[in-house]
């Protein structure tokens, strides 16, 4: 059965990547073993991890000033690990754009960090990205959630501030941000970069310093071991490498951003003209990857989600914190998926008004 999967993550993979995995599964590179069975100490895997790093470096035009780490534990582990490693004075700033920003704040506090909220859109129910001005006090870094998966907002451009730390979990490689003021980027792979189990950290090398942190939290040790201090998530890194190659072949981040803009515009244009559905996010703060909408009537929303499912448009239920619907249009979602969604929205609207 073929469906369009609008899940917020884990999310759909490009069809060509799934097909490659199928071909590789019985015997990876004529080794007689599947990728799930190979040793992380083998040349086979060494080639995969180094290839994935090179592909990521190329896609983001990363200079040698940055180190790439392939870790585990999700973005959630990094909420505390980042400040423990790089917040020298244990004092950071954070922009409160919703649930995941607050989770980052809570975890940093648990690690003994003072977190100043330097801007917030809470008073506007997180329907926009707030204006951010230069903080008065000196802060080790400023944490931003570039795309707010639950609230459906995103930074169109990064603010002109130094020492940014970005949670890119839900728009990594989906939007072409200028990275020159960025100290660190992190996110889980399960939305735009493959499957769950892999966490990416990209960090300016001069921030990787000796600490007495336990080894698995210690960037210096992890970097020295090329992310292989212990057994890495071999299959997830292999899948990420295939996704990175796919993205490179189709033209890289600027091209996928164009495509993401086309897909999301199609849906937003429909919602803006609809008499049944609405999206309450401020226009210039709209996410390209997570589109939240509702009819305003929970019963009708439920009916929509059920009917959509019957029509092979799956996982459109909104996050429990905001209700309604959410369509996640990550990199792997083809334009046809957005078209199918709009066709169905249209049909549902004409039958339920
Ligand atoms: N940050 C954002 C923006 C997210 O969307 C998520 C997951 N949905 C997380 C952090 C948490 O990620 P993980 O499950 O990888 O810990």
How are the elements arranged and paired?
Layout: E1 4-5, H1 15-24, H2 43-60, E2 66-71, H3 74-86, E3 91-96, H4 99-110, E4 114-120, E5 142-145, E6 147-148, E7 153-154, E8 164-167, E9 182-188, E10 199-204, H5 219-224, H6 234-249, H7 252-273, E11 290-293, H8 298-310, E12 313-314, E13 325-328, H9 335-351
Parallel strand pairs: 1-12, 3-4, 3-5, 5-8, 8-9
Antiparallel strand pairs: 2-10, 6-7, 9-10, 11-13
The chain binds 4'-deoxy-4'-aminopyridoxal-5'-phosphate.
Function: Catalyzes the reversible conversion of 3-phosphohydroxypyruvate to phosphoserine and of 3-hydroxy-2-oxo-4-phosphonooxybutanoate to phosphohydroxythreonine.
Binding site for L-glutamate: 41
EC number: 2.6.1.52
